[in-house]
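Encode chain A's predicted structure.
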Amino acid sequence: MNAVVRTILLGAASLAALASAAQAADIIEQPYYEPAPEVVPVEVGSGWYLRGDVSYDFESDLDAGYRTYGPLCKNCSPFYETQEYDGFKIEENANVGVGVGYQFNEFLRGDLTAHYWKSDAHGTDTGGFGIDCFGVARSSSSCVSTDKTEMTAWELMANAYVDLGTYAGFTPYVGAGVGAVHIEYDALTNTAQNVVNGQVGAVAYTGTHPGLEDWRFAYALMAGASYDLTQALKLDVGYRYVNVEEGDMFGFDKDTAAGGAVGTQGFDKGFDRHTIQAGLRYSLF
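Encoded structure for chain A:
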């Protein structure tokens, strides 16, 4: 009996020793490595986008006027009188723009844009019946003046848009912006001709007036739609209305200035621009 018990105990001890050795071998052969922490990718620039646009600006009416200067007689005090043009227009032109923006959420975004355009501008004015271009009363006579200049505009605008949802890749939107426009007029050429009995005569005189420039407040309203060309690139087509406040146009010609005239001679009362534009918006990720 004792021999049997000893045999069983020795067998159990042998099995325990073998198990311990096997476990130690497993630890040596298969070392334990602690799992590395999960790396979460961080998006850099998410929501930011760049844009570039080309536009067609339609012809615009320009409500403009000017001041005349001169004494009525040799010893009279000088005076200024304000006149209105019969009509003044800004010709149609191309318009280019660039900008950078941010998509705040699915429906709201905003951007800063800069636009540049250059256009011819011209107007006409007719003097009173029976007065020629030199102010002399003549029967059935009048004076017709044609003024021509060129204007250059730099526009800086902060805009906000509401995207109205995406349908089959198309996202309609509405927007508004506020900012400033720098308007610079080139020298204005004034050509006057006598009209006698309805017939336009030869040029009576031609004068040149120095162009003026200034910054003006402006606001814009937009509506359009974008289309997803790729995940990052959108085609944007829309209508844009811009209202520019009043400002200076040109000064007095050198002869009138030499006679004592000072300050601004020509001015406009502000104008509207109606634009169809197309461009691309590229999202930065």
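DSSP finds two helices and 14 strands in the chain.
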